[in-house]
Structure formats: C-alpha cells, structure tokens
Design goal:
By secondary structure, the chain is an alpha/beta fold. The chain is 37% helix and 23% strand. It is globular, with a radius of gyration of 17 Å.
C-alpha cells in the first residue's frame, strides 16, 4: 500500500487544492478494484477493462474502454488516470486523453511512468524479480511488452486547458520501495503505517518527490472560457 500512497498522495493534494477532495463527482480510468477509494471515501465511478477481484465500496465499478467512455460531455467534476497511459498502445494514448478531457468539467489528473529513465528502472525491477525467482507481476510485464513509456509531450498543444506538472517518486526510491514490496511482511507493516499515520506518511513521501523521477503528474484545469 505504500507504493499506492506514493502515487496517489500527489493527486489527492491536487484535489484538495481545487476543493474537490471532499466533494464533486469523480471518475477514475483504469481504477482496478480499489483505486482512489483507498484514500477518498466518497462514491466514485471506477472504469476498467475488467476487474480481477470484486471491486469494493466506495467504487461504483464500470467495465468500459478509456477510448470510448459511455458518458456525456462534462459529466464529472474530476477525472483521474493514475498509471494508465503506459498500458495504452502509443497510437491510442491521445484518444484516451481527449476522452478524459471530454467528460471532465473542471479538473483532469494524469500520472504515469515517464520516459526512458522510468523504462530502464522497470527493466531493473524485472531483473530483481527474476533473481529472486519470483513471478513478475502482470502490470510490470505489460510495461515491458507495450510501447515505450509516454512522454510529457503528450500534452503539447492541448487547447482549452491549463496544464501543470510535477515529478513523483525519485527513481532510486521507487526501485528501493518496489524491491522491498516483494516481502509480504514489509507490505503488511507499511500498510499499517499508512493507515495509522497518513499525515506523517505523506510528509515523508513528499521528500522523495525529487528528480530524476519515475513518474510525472499532470493536472489539467478547464479554462473558464471553454
């Protein structure tokens, strides 16, 4: 759960700064069975191609593709896509971004492993799993099988939205954390810490959001004149 906190806490800070953490209709693309519901205890729609286990409250699950969302324009106050675009084929990424923006009324947040430095980090992580004689997680295998990781240039030329970005998870910290999470006891211990001491956890994790970063977070806010 610590690695979930590392990637969701920056998104939660953005939601809070925009007054949308405790209110507002939210859609998460590629949510898996839990998504942001681990941290934001308000009902939200979680969209994915399928769910390996039964989704749990507060998610309202929906099976759908990010390339063709079954929603009206501006139906949600917020759309979140965390660690999704790297799983999308290169030629479909722009379409997913445009669909997220179409159904978002105020704010859209994307977070993803960005560029070659993140790609090489995941290659090193695959080697660590192989050395430990452990099965490579499906998400990591998909990282290696898919197109190269997306770059920040994906958002060049986006019209009608103000775009801000920040780095998330220093590369060395990310690798250290993911290797440590091969141990179930480490996962159980750090999950308890995250649940009992969320403010302290967030404060410590902010200190490791230093370049070079594994992930980039992009906040797109709809312009008032659009």
């Amino acid at each position: 759960m610590l690695n979930w906190a590392a990637r969701y806490y920056p998104i939660i800070r953005i939601l809070k700064s925009d007054g949308l953490f405790d209110t507002g209709a939210l859609l998460e693309i590629g949510a898996g069975p839990y998504g942001i519901g681990e941290f934001r205890k308000l009902p939200f729609v979680g969209c994915d191609l399928g769910f390996a286990v039964k989704p749990r409250w507060p998610m309202l699950p929906l099976i759908a593709s990010g390339t063709q969302l079954p929603f009206k324009d501006k139906q949600f106050d917020v759309v979140v896509a965390s660690d999704v675009l790297e799983h999308v084929p290169d030629q479909l990424r722009e379409g997913v971004i445009l669909e997220c923006l179409r159904v978002s009324r105020k704010l859209t947040v994307f977070g993803f492993p960005c560029g070659e430095v993140a790609w090489k980090a995941d290659q090193e992580l695959v080697s660590a799993y192989e050395s430990a004689k452990l099965a490579t997680p499906r998400w990591l295998s998909e990282h290696m099988e898919g197109a190269p990781f997306p770059e920040a240039e994906l958002f060049d030329g986006i019209k009608g939205w103000n775009v801000e970005s920040c780095g998330n998870e220093n590369i060395r910290f990310h690798l250290w954390l993911m290797k440590r999470e091969m141990s179930r006891s480490f996962v159980l211990l750090t999950s308890a810490v995250v649940r009992m001491l969320p403010s302290l956890t967030e404060s410590l994790l902010r200190k490791v959001d230093q370049e070079p970063c594994y992930r980039q977070i992009f906040a797109l806010r709809r312009r008032a004149d659009v």
